[in-house]
Amino acid sequence: MAFDADKVKLGRRGLLAGGGALGLTGALTACGSGDDDADSGAESTGPWSFTDDQPVTSELDHVPTKLVAYTGMAAALYDFGIEVPAVFGPTTNEDGTATSQAGNLPVGDLEVFGNTYGEFDVEKYASWGPEVLLTHFYYDPATLWYIPEESKDNITGLAEVVALSADDGANTLDAVIGRHAELAKSLGADLESDENTANKERYDAAVAALTEAAAANPVTVLACSAAAEVFYASNPAMGNDMRFFTELGVNFVQPDNLDEGGYFESLSWENADKYPADVLFLDSRIQALQPDALTEFPTWTALPAVQEGQVVAWEAEPMYSYGLAAVSIEALADAIKNAKKLV
């Protein structure tokens, strides 16, 4: 499944009880005009303009450096060569290590305005003095990813807002990565650099490997996610990554009794074997149970793919740079290439 906001714990903190955008603008003016502008890796020349997927055109008289981004978007931009000094969204685990959504970000050096869904410290954000807020949206451009609805007006009134479509029901992973590359270029990234060239070549090779593996060994793959009480069989039509992998020839299971919204079918653990599969593409996000925890579930351990060790991690919230995406695509290609036909 591409995302499921209802499964993420809401933990709002540090939000203003009142004052509205006017008070926050005052805080921004007072506190956000210091000389310690963050270095984004882009030259601070201008003017800067970018048309996002809402579609809205943002314009400044210089290339912005004080960027605040949803963690997954920040990770993608960082991989393209743009430093994003402040983030919101799942950035660190309880032990301080980086979440999967954080990619290669130096999480210990970042300003973090909220680490969980529904959490955004508006006062801290205003005082920091953002120039551009960067995030995603799913289907509805008015619903910005990880921006709490109750404080949305306060947050979006403080800086330019750039939102890219992570899922519109038709776009694919390849296209979404391309849009992140365009955004990174506008911010000063050199897409022809040695590192970016190598990452693109690795990505292209991974895509070719997955295409070849799917054709040579057409096993059945179930995209799934595990929770304490529920096993989710995901709909491959509802994620930009799975739509792309389907185009490449991957044979995903299509659940036949989808929940409202169409993202997945919720199964009790007693019915976790409803959809036979040769390979399990298992949600690897922090909120989902992982294989070590699932050893306590008899119906999980009884699944043929589990017994054969044919379980591969799924970045259910995909990474939108060529380098980061290549890692996930390579893993799926290897899993399919080496899988035994079990069902």
Brief characterization of the structure:
With 343 residues, the protein is of the alpha/beta class. The chain has helices spanning 20-31, 71-80, 122-128, 152-156, 173-186, 194-216, 240-247, 291-294, 298-301, 304-307, 322-338, and strands spanning 48-51, 57-60, 67-70, 86-88, 111-112, 132-138, 160-167, 220-226, 231-234, 251-252, 264-267, 279-283, 311-314. It has 2 domains: 5-190, Nitrogenase molybdenum iron protein domain (Rossmann fold), CATH 3.40.50; 197-338, Rossmann fold, CATH 3.40.50.
Describe the structure.
It is found in: Cell envelope. It holds the Pfam family Peripla_BP_2. Residues 65-343 form the Fe/B12 periplasmic-binding domain. Residues 46-56 have a biased composition (Polar residues). The structure is a single chain. This protein has two domains: 5-190, 3-Layer(aba) Sandwich (Rossmann fold); 197-338, 3-Layer(aba) Sandwich (Rossmann fold), CATH 3.40.50.1980. The chain contains eleven helices and 13 strands. It has helices at residues 20-31, 71-80, 122-128, 152-156, 173-186, 194-216, 240-247, 291-294, 298-301, 304-307, 322-338; strands spanning 48-51, 57-60, 67-70, 86-88, 111-112, 132-138, 160-167, 220-226, 231-234, 251-252, 264-267, 279-283, 311-314. The strands form three sheets. Strands 8, 9, 10, 11, 12 and 13 form a six-stranded mixed beta sheet that branches. It has a five-stranded parallel beta sheet with strand order 5-4-3-6-7. A two-stranded antiparallel sheet has the order 1-2. Helix 1 packs parallel to helix 3. The model is unreliable at 1-43 (pLDDT under 50).
